[in-house]
Write a structure and sequence with these properties.
The chain is mainly α. It contains 46 helices and no strands.
Length: 815
């Protein structure tokens, strides 16, 4: 019977035909010149010869065709044309003095097309960077563009200022970009200009360019001006900021770059100018940017925001039209020291329907603990909650946390706005839970229903959020002892370890609920996150809970989600689930069979344990080839031994996968040694492949570590690659020195077992065998030390340890 799920993708057995995969395509330069050559062009060398031999007129025609493709196509066809142009430009094969306009026009295009256009400009202009005057030569547009794309200049020449006001917008944009890059590279230095151009003169030209009709010019001129002010007097800061505020409301090309500037801003402007800027940020960029730019030395420091809000609503201020959420974010940024004017509070209350949570966060930071506006806010939120507004119910949670006295005073009204079914069930339960944390007697009547909702909602992502909900459940149990579900008892009794994951504790008392929560979380949490690792640990620790999530765990194993150690935990959890309830794993037998050939030792062994448990429960559930796994014999060579006779193909594939991947924890040494006892040909083939792959990847390959594992477990097996290892060590010493110590690690082990044979091979490759000839650098001294140890171990005069004397004294065919 064919092993279910194993056949596809296996490596062919010896004697079967092997179809070599396509590993490379012709390089871009070869594809560029192929139409110009009568002979096949498949290599870079052939392409270089073809370019050199091609007539200029044919090269020109080929370039014009590609330029036409750049101008008239899009998507992959345009990118392909740009790639070929770049390959030609890099080889100086383009017979052009000026970059083609279709390429220049793509410089602002996002993605690969824009990137390729930029590098083409760089390549074509590189040799002419400092020749001529960009203001006076015909290709000034190209040179100005190049000035912006190439490395930052150390000064600003008069020609650059002329370029800022040139007729060609591409020239102006390139010059503005170049000045910005120069200013950025010299931020923090005492000056940014040399020669006859003063800082104020440069600043004046940049400020003039901030009104340019081309958004690219406005964008880079604004950025450059903002950087130049650090070298000028304080009055220049206000001038620069006055250009930033309108830029925020400008074209996306300008706004996107100014957003970056705002994130790095640290200059102090006058209150009036900063106020306008705050209004522009709040009105155009929104609450997210208010939060991002608030606090510390950032643009929206609390003092500036407080001063701006204190004047609300100032006539003509951009804040008057700002979204409610942005205003609320500004109030929160100002902090509790803000003496909010009545007009601002009224504006927030009027807009509470638009942003209930943000407004609540703002209102609870201003005014005294019994401020009347809080009472008004609670009543309005309750009304909105009663109408089905989920955000309003969530805002009541904020009140319960920040101002529980206000919520308690209005509790009878608040309860009427809660709903413990549907989409408002969880926020409603959290309102009750929050109140229970400070005043459990107030929520006695609703504690039970709230506890039921929260207990079923422990699948929330984030350990802190799960902890918050458990704290609420404990508080609700204090309000009504009958409200505590079984998984909450350890927390009520204070017997739960506070450092353990919440769901791990719940799983011990109520594995079904914990399993359901874990199943949900595995579908939503990032597989590469620390939380995912923690959740897999819970399932490994609690096999009863794992029986509820076998399908998700198998998905982790098959898709290889996250890092390898996550797969180890998932595999162990599946094995635990199989031991607890084999029927939950039985539908996945076919997949588990394929995992017997996995590259990781823990995955292979856990899959075998799971299959064994399934087979013990129902022998007919396993394919005949792996049925021996259920015999109950867990000897030293398990699971290799029971598979050796019935499924050698699986063992061969397991060896192949362990050798092919740079897996930590692959147990490749133990695997090859164990397989060698049953199928020496498979083990020998695997060892040979391991040496070949390590050599192909290079001396830094982690496969050298795997070979060291093999050498320590089975030196006879590893000795099959001894000649290749010696050759790699000597070659690495001769060519790159510092890498020699990596392939020398397995050699050091083998030299201890096979001194005579190792010495002979070293003499064959390097008659001197003198590591001290290496250059005296730290990294190479480490190589010298390692290789010296190898030579010492292999020397005919070296003492042979008693435990290894039998191997060392074997006949020549072995040593």
């Amino acid at each position: 019977m064919l092993l279910d799920g194993f056949e596809p993708g296996r490596r062919p057995l010896s004697g079967e035909p092997v179809v070599a995969p396509v590993t490379d395509v012709a390089p871009p330069l070869a594809r560029f010149v192929a139409p110009l050559s009568d002979d096949p062009v498949e290599t870079r060398a052939a392409a270089e010869d073809a370019v050199r031999d091609a007539p200029d007129e044919r090269l020109t025609a080929r370039i014009e065709t590609l330029i036409g493709d750049v101008a008239t196509t899009d998507g992959r066809e345009r990118v392909e044309a740009l790639e070929l142009l770049y390959a030609a430009a890099a080889e100086n094969a383009v017979p052009l003095d000026v970059t083609p306009l279709p390429v220049l026009d793509l410089l602002e295009t996002p993605g690969r097309a824009g990137m390729l256009a930029a590098v083409i400009v760089r390549e074509l202009a590189y040799d002419r960077l400092d020749t001529g005057d960009p203001a006076d030569v015909p290709d000034r547009r190209q040179r100005a563009e190049h000035f912006g794309l190439e490395k930052a200049r150390s000064d600003v020449e008069p020609s650059v200022l002329d370029a800022l006001s040139a007729d060609d917008p591409h020239v102006r944009a390139g010059a503005a970009r170049g000045v910005f890059k120069m200013a950025w590279s010299r931020r923090g230095l005492p000056s940014i200009t040399t020669g006859d151009i003063s800082g104020p003169e440069l600043f004046e030209h940049l400020m003039g360019a901030t009104d340019d009709e081309d958004p690219r010019v406005r964008a880079y001129a604004t950025l450059a001006a903002a950087l130049v002010v650090t070298h000028l007097d304080d009055g220049a800061v206000d001038s620069a900021l006055s250009a930033v505020a309108p830029a925020i409301e400008d074209d996306p090309v300008v706004r996107d770059r100014v957003e970056w500037l705002l994130s790095t801003w640290s200059e102090d402007g006058s209150a009036a100018v900063v106020s306008d800027l705050i209004g522009a940020v709040a009105g155009t960029l929104g609450p997210e940017w208010v939060d991002r730019l608030s606090g510390g030395r950032r643009l929206l420091d609390s003092e500036s925001v407080e001063a701006t809000l204190a004047e609300f609503p100032a006539s003509g201020s951009a804040l008057e039209a700002a979204p409610t959420a942005s205003l609320a974010a500004l109030v929160t940024a100002a902090g509790d020291s803000l003496d909010a004017p009545d007009g601002l509070v009224e504006r927030l209350l009027d807009g509470i329907e638009d942003a209930p949570v943000a407004v609540t966060e703002a209102l609870v930071t201003v005014g005294g603990p019994d401020a009347s506006h809080l009472e008004t806010a609670v009543r309005r939120l309750t009304a909105l909650s009663s109408e089905g507004t989920v955000a309003a119910t969530e805002a009541l949670v904020e009140f319960g946390t920040a101002r529980p006295n206000v919520l308690a005073t209005n509790w009878d009204t608040v309860v009427t706005g809660l709903d413990f079914e549907g989409e408002r069930a969880i926020p409603s339960a959290r309102v009750v839970g929050t109140m229970a944390l400070t005043d459990p007697e107030t929520v006695t009547d609703t504690a039970s229903v709230a506890a039921t909702v929260l207990y079923e909602a422990l699948d929330v992502s984030g350990a802190d959020r799960r902890r918050e909900r458990m704290d609420m459940l404990v508080a609700l149990a204090a309000a009504d002892p009958t409200a505590a579900p079984p998984g909450v008892d350890p927390f009520v009794d204070d017997t739960a370890d506070p450092d353990r994951e919440i769901l791990a504790v719940v799983a011990e008392a109520d594995p079904s609920t914990a399993g359901t929560a874990l199943a949900s979380l595995l579908s939503t949490v990032d597989p590469t996150s620390r939380e995912y690792w923690t959740l897999l640990g819970v399932l490994e620790e609690c096999p009863t809970a794992a029986t509820h999530v076998v399908e998700q765990l198998v998905t982790v194993l098959v898709r290889r989600e996250g890092h390898g150690n996550r797969r180890d935990r998932a595999a162990a959890a599946v094995a635990g689930a199989a031991a607890t309830d084999p029927t939950t794993v039985e539908p996945h037998v076919g997949t588990l069979v394929t995992l017997l050939a996995d590259g990781r030792a823990t995955v292979r062994e856990s899959a075998a344990e799971a299959l064994g448990a399934v087979g013990e429960h129902d022998p007919d559930a396993l394919p005949p080839a792996v049925a021996t796994l259920s015999d109950g014999d867990r000897g030293e060579d398990w699971p290799v031994a029971p598979l050796a006779a019935s499924a050698p193909r699986l063992l061969e594939q397991a060896v192949h996968n362990a050798v092919a991947g740079p897996y930590h924890g692959s147990g490749v040494g133990d695997l090859l040694s164990t397989v060698a006892a049953y199928h020496p040909d498979i083990a020998a083939d695997g060892t040979t492949r391991l040496v070949e792959r390590a050599d192909a990847v290079g001396p830094t390959s982690s496969r050298w570590d795997l070979l060291e594992q093999v050498a320590e477990s089975n030196p006879e097996l590893a000795a099959l690659g001894l000649e290749q290892v010696v050759e790699n060590v000597v070659s690495a010493v001769e060519e790159s020195h510092r890498l020699a110590r990596l392939p020398a690690a397995p050699l050091a082990v083998l030299a201890d077992y096979y001194p005579r044979r190792t010495w002979a091979l070293l003499e064959q490759h390097d008659p001197e065998c003198d590591p001290s000839s290496l250059p005296d650098r730290a990294s190479e001294r480490r190589a010298e030390e390692t290789l010296t140890a190898v030579v010492s171990a292999a020397s005919p005069d070296a003492p042979i340890p008693e435990s290894r004397r039998s191997l060392a004294d074997e006949p020549a065919e072995h040593d």
